[in-house]
Amino acid sequence: MVDESSWSGRVEGRRAARDVVKLAAFMDQRPGAGGSAPLLALGVDNERYWVKLISNRQGPMVPVNEQIVGRCGDLIGAPTCRVQLVEIPESLSGLTSGVMVGAGLAHGSLDVPDTINQRRLDHRYDDDNTRRHAGLFALHDWCWGADSQWLFSQSAEYQTYSHDHGYFFPGGPDWPADLGAVRAAVDHPHRLQDELPTADPSGLHRDAVSDVAAALDSVTADDLVEILTMIPPEWPVRDTDLEAIGFFLERRAPQVAERMRSLAGGR
To answer: Does the reported pTM lie above 0.90?
Structure first.
């Protein structure tokens, strides 16, 4: 079993923003729904991103959580929207769609066009959602999901994506202020079906459940260090806080894998 002491110094001094996409323009559009008021922007890579600023109204830890959870989802094959560090140049600073924007690094989430946002995990048998939803159950338990909500693509048979992960982890965006609560929760289940009674695990594809369990079993400390050291050093979270969440994620991964394998009703 993973001990927290094994994480001492793993992140310290190693953080550096990598693979940053510079923004070319903000779109002429109202901010997105939600307390963080994300802005839609065009990157120099010609992709569109929903951007959450460090100065967003829900606090500076929201972009940190978004980056970590989105990359953890990708690590285990869960259907999260692709996350990206984005750079806001000085030329784009100022008042944008009623939001004051400053130059610097921000969180970006790749836009999925033609979607609806819901808090109910519907459309289990549309598209390949019997597989995709297995990853959502795993991600929620592993990263201690809260305020979970999903995007459903209207043009792709309601293909489902997880997004808006700012309130994941025990304590939500305030988790660095109470690491005791993070440590206390590390060995406790946090199953989606317990937190959201409308989330029924029946009908999940058996192979997908097995695949995501195997992916969780394969998570290593090095995988998590790679994710955590991508958090920009200028963002307001300490290296030691990130090491605590690395311990949390590494220790929980095999436990969540076992809970996934125990799910009944697979196809």
So the answer is: yes
User: 30: helix, coil or strand?
Assistant: coil
Adjacency order of strands within the sheet including 159-163: 115-118, 149-153, 159-163
Query: Cα angle vertex 73, ends 208, 161, to 5°?
Result: 75
| Secondary structure letter of residue 188 according to DSSP | S
Q: Could you tell me which residues are beta bridge partners of residue 80?
A: 162
Between CA 211 and CA 102 the distance in angstroms is 42
Q: Answer whether 215's CB lies under 8 Å from 152's CB.
A: no
Judge whether 164 and 149 are in contact, CB under 8 Å.
yes
According to DSSP, the residues that pair with 163 across neighbouring strands are: 149
**Residues 5-64 pLDDT 10s:** 999 999 999 999 999 999 999 997 766 656 678 999 999 999 999 999 999 989 999 999
Tell which residue, 224, 144, 216, has the closest CA to residue 186.
144
Which residues are CB-neighbours of 140 under 8 A, at least 6 positions away?
148, 190, 191, 192, 195
Which of these, 245, 239, 247, 232, lies nearest to 11 by C-alpha position? 239
Tell how many helices (H) and how many strands (E) occur in the chain. Answer: 7, 10
